[in-house]
Amino acid sequence: MTAVYEQVRAWALSFTGTFEDFPFGPETAVFKVQASEHSKPKVFALLWHTEAGCRLNLKCEPALAERLRETYPQITPGYHMNKKHWNSVTLPGTWEELDAGLNAALVQDLLEDSYDLVVSQLPRRDRHLLDWHPTT
């Protein structure tokens, strides 16, 4: 496993109510948020290895998704996902290999934005159980 893969995985698992699942097989980690055992889990990220590093699928607001794709060549419409609401981020094996302005802080922000976008759509009860408060 690459350093980038392990760091992204750690960030994803750091969010409240998050767990890792492998419904598509052992090669694709799916990160879901669930407020309680009675709540339906919701996907906010997918992560898998590539020859050069890894790829990360993230939920994104449509207008922002378009701007990110125009700005960063590593960000493309979501692979095997709804292209309007999901982006794929192609990442190298190490953070030092990132280029064209994409950096670890931006990847972490995009991951957090995906989590927040999904949690914001959960019922109020679930948001309360997750102790989630929107940032402005």
From TrEMBL:
GO molecular function: DNA binding
Stored Pfam families: YjbR (PF04237)
Keywords for the protein's UniProt record, in alphabetical order: DNA-binding
Record bears the keyword DNA-binding: yes
Record protein name field: MmcQ/YjbR family DNA-binding protein
Organism of derivation: Populibacterium corticicola
Lineage: Bacteria, Bacillati, Actinomycetota, Actinomycetes, Micrococcales
